[in-house]
Amino acid sequence: MIGLKPGISVRDQLTVTRRIARRLYERREVIHAERHAIRREASKLREHLPFTKRQIEVLEQQANDHLADEMKGAGEVLRGFGNTILRDRDGELQALGFEALADLLNINRVEREKARREGWHTPWELVFVHNLESSASNRDAGWKRGPLFEACFLVMADFIATAPEAALPDPFAPGEIFGEKLPPTLHIVPAKTPEETRSC
With contact defined as beta carbons under 8 Å apart, do 59 and 41 qualify? Predict the structure, then answer.
């Protein structure tokens, strides 16, 4: 799963992965906020254009460069974690079983029961598709995404940005999420003969 000490259990790997992912995600959020503050300063100077054009360019470049190496490194590690969750190539995570996985992901009891009923048992369904990670601790604070969700989101965002156009569905096509609704598919069912009706 991740490069940890030899012999470490899959349960411990997932626990450590979540902790590292949380730290990296929180650090990226701090850097985003600092970059945003620099861009706000640049934005304030726009009302004095064209005299502030050079200052704005300097600030925007400063925002882009601010802790860029740290941001890139954290993103690469998070993408690695996201790939692990989305692919689970060796089935190690799913082999833990639903209850153990739900415990390790800190899924609350209500959503755990719903996941069990709906058959959401794979790591990527629990973490990314249905965003149940950390639901036992996050719901009081409003909608919040877990650290592994964020890791998976980075992977999917990269895929969408780099995949050939033909490999992606068109969300505005008829029948798709933002497209025109298609009429239901109707099937003609042959009428039963009197003999068939009596045998029912």
Answer: yes
